[in-house]
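Design job #97: recover the sequence.
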């Protein structure tokens, strides 16, 4: 094993191969995606596909890991900030950066071994899940929100991490995506408002997503130890736990009717 990995050798004898060969896709490089990139780079991953159409704005500095004041002046693209962060640790990393919406370069995503989705909106998640399911790629989605619409109560911070794996329940099975909510979002298109994005819940969620991914890639916790695939985060109480729906369904024979025929 590479000596650099002696503090994470518990991940198994396969680790060097996993880090050098796995192509990891990170779709959305804002508050969540930038933290996922940072952790993957520190762990030692060498092959990346990065996708985000956006450039940085001053309001992103409170949560976009790797961003600097000079990025604001130069209007840096978010993909370039992520590339710089990776190259500061791995000058030889193989990086494909796509400064577009993922829907415009869907074919490029198909080569990934695992994809992290750090996107705004349910419609984007729905489309990315369809893509990853069709290519049998494990997909891990993170998201957070703060609801401060109830004047008599303190704001409620919530979030979720969902792993949508070939042959396993999907985000529709879990009820996270449904036609009613998708229709509502499409109807409100262009009027989505400013959604809260905050660095510390994104830290919890991105770290959890990384933990799921490393388990999938190295099996270090042992295959018999069933990985939780849907976590819910409560930022007010500071808890992260298996989603109630997931716990209820865990012991049932759950095959996904939405993406039939895609068994691992
Ligand atoms: Zn399903």
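Job complete. Output follows.
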């Amino acid at each position: 094993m590479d000596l650099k990995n002696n503090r994470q050798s518990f991940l198994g004898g396969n680790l060097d191969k996993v880090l050098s060969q796995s192509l990891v896709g990170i779709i959305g490089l804002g508050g969540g995606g930038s933290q996922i990139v940072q952790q993957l780079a520190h762990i030692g991953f060498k092959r990346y596909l990065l996708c985000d159409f956006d450039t940085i704005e001053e309001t992103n500095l409170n949560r976009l890991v790797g961003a600097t004041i000079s990025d604001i002046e130069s209007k840096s693209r978010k993909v370039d900030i992520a590339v710089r962060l990776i190259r500061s640790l791995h000058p030889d990393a193989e990086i494909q950066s796509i400064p577009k919406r993922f829907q415009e370069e869907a074919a490029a995503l198909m080569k990934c071994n695992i994809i992290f989705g750090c996107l705004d909106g349910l419609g984007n998640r729905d489309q990315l899940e369809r893509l990853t399911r069709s290519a049998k790629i494990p997909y891990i989605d993170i998201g957070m929100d703060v609801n401060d619409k109830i004047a008599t109560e303190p704001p409620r911070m919530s979030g979720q991490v969902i792993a949508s794996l070939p042959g396993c329940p999907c985000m529709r099975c879990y009820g996270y995506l449904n036609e009613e909510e998708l229709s509502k979002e499409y109807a409100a298109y262009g009027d989505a408002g400013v959604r809260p994005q905050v660095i510390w819940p994104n830290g919890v969620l991105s770290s959890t997503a990384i933990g799921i991914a490393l388990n999938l890639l190295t099996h270090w916790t042992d295959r018999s130890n069933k990985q939780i695939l849907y976590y819910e985060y409560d930022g007010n109480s500071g808890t992260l736990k298996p989603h109630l729906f997931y716990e209820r369904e865990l012991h049932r024979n759950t095959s996904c009717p939405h993406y039939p025929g895609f068994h691992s």
